[in-house]
Amino acid sequence: MEIADLPVPPDLAAGYARRGITELYPPQAACVEAGLFSGKNLLVAIPTASGKTLVAEMAMHHQVARGGKCLYIVPLRALASEKFEEFSGKGLRVGIATGDFDRRDEYLGRNDIIVATSEKVDSLLRNRTPWLAEISLLVVDEVHLIDDPSRGATVEMVIAKLRHKNPGMQIIALSATIGNPADLAGWLDAELVESEWRPVDLREGVFFEDGIRFADSVREVERKSKYEDLDLVLDTVTEGGQCLVFVSSRKNAEAFAKRAASGLKIANPILAGYADKIRSSASTDMGKILAACVAQGAAFHHAGLSREERQLVEAGFREGQIKVISSTPTLAAGLNLPARRVIVRDYLRFNAGEGMMPIPVREYRQMAGRAGRPRLDPYGEAVLIAKSEEMVDELFDYYIEAMAEDVRSRCAEEAVLCTHILSLIATGFARERGEVLGFMDGTFYAHQGESPRALKRAVDRVLEFLREAEMITEVGEWLEATEYGSLVSRLYIDPRSAEVIVNAMTRQKEYTDIGFLHLLCATPDMPTLFVRKNDMYALDRFLADHRDELWMEIPWDADEGFDRSLKTALLLADWGDEVGEDVICERYSVGPGDVYGMVESVAWLVHASRHLAGLFAPHLKAPIEEMELRTKHGIKKELLPLIRIRGIGRVRARRLFNNGIDSIEALREAGPEKVGKVLGQGIAAQVFEQLDGVRDEIGGVGEEQSTLSRFG
Ligand code: ADP
């Protein structure tokens, strides 16, 4: 099927043609036949890299040409920027929404395509963002993530709410191959387009001793070392290909990159250039190790890397210079970096409470699907590694020949229902118990026919919790959110977190940094750090000196959760005390990417707490407001007066302060010349341009400032 014959704008078709895309891939043609351009809902369940994004893009342009507006939902922030860039510059207005959760972002409604995470869309719904009612095409990327234990329910609820709001809207759901696509398609009233077709042949095999066993052949691999994984990499690189190696942990990823680097020992000026860039931005030992590996053609990739490090590794790999990346499996979902050979080295993973467990088939598929670069590789290879002859067959059965798992709804868990039911009531989607149940009836959970009685019971328990917490009230049979309830819904925090915060704040007479941070780290919304045995000494010592500053009682049977929240709070306190990133990473065994993630999560909870304090604990509002700025910028209190100036972050503010300039007044007194000596003339000029408008006192936290900025 030729793209030129399709009802898409000629400019788009011409743009594709310039990239050599003139004919649809067979699964794409199947989408057109199934009604892509006639408003039909579609569930497209086809392998990675077989052209799903292109299908969605054509449908979006088609819609917009007819006056429609499109919402493209992605599971991860990183993917949002990737898609945003992909859709931009093709004649439509494209917007991206991933940030703060209590804004309506009305300006976004001016766009034709809005790319957003499901959490962000949920928060827009809660804040009653008007343009959502205009969405005529909803694309849900990676819809199989409905099954994800922590975020799946939000994806499902967002789809259900949007359908409820805009009954005529077209839905295009994009999915990896799953076990029960018909089930999901049935829920979405969608035509199912299912295919195993791939643009590059994929050969899947199991390596044992000195060869890869494929279903119908064996490929010999020269053994140059005692390491199977390394020899598999060298084998591909010798042939001119690249490898991705999936391992179970960050440590393993780093260790393998070192092994691969010393096995490859490539040296050239381009690699040296990448390594220099990484080294110069590296604030940690991890960054230095990465630079050393990259200099020899290998790299590791995981969530602990800083954004700059990640981008450099990806660019070096795309350019073909970095020959191998070892990575944790979490990245298989987001990373669009195909390679000739994918080695799934570790297929066992530690699951809390279960020990080492094999990863799901769907995850294996996602990793294997990265094998083979269209038009560049003659084929792709996905290789598992067996430790014994028997294991070869087992791995064939378990992964290569297995069906992907079914996708199941995650809505039955009360923890997630709690937050979603509150939002249904607060936004007027449901005004009485019957309507809550009616809405729940339109979910995938109900479609899967899982015990309606269990759902009813869960809904009742949640309503009871929300009533007791005084987040909702009942007037006759009408349910209404209280001021508290509707605030919690808009702030987009878990009602259980709000209860933990409010209960402690109303009891607490005096503000302490660590008490407050620890409280936030003890809420279900806050990810916490893993505690190792050798952390215990520092935690105990801290408690011996600072017990009185905590806002929460130390339970007599304090468990791991308590230690984790305390350790996390200490990291955040260090951040607010301007402890260097390198020291923090070393002290808590984390990477810069983790610090950033943690700061971002807590900054949101601090922000929410400020609003909650306004309602329940006005005496804590001012110090929390200060903490909000301090967390956001990673600064001590003494820098607060300076940080309000645009262009002044933690580093520049500290430099000014150390030069005796500690306030707006002091800046004025010092004058442009002296400030220029500290910050450089250009920045000084910018600062003085703004000074007229700034009062010499600590200002409130303006909503427009509420994006994280940690680079001074
Ligand atoms: P998916 O979303 O399924 O992972 P993409 O839509 O991103 O896949 O497509 C993968 C790659 O294939 C992209 O580089 C895309 O430009 C290219 N591609 C998509 N459709 C075609 C086509 N019909 N012909 C040639 N290349 C295509």
From TrEMBL:
One of its GO terms (biological process) is DNA repair. It is an enzyme of class 5 (isomerase). Residues 33-196 form the Helicase ATP-binding domain. Its EC number is 5.6.2.4. Coiled coil: none annotated. Monomer. HAMAP family: Helicase_Hel308 (MF_00442). Belongs to the helicase family. Hel308 subfamily. PANTHER family: ATP-DEPENDENT DNA HELICASE HEL308, DNA POLYMERASE THETA, PUTATIVE (AFU_ORTHOLOGUE AFUA_1G05260)-RELATED. This is ATP-dependent DNA helicase Hel308. It comes from Methanoculleus submarinus.
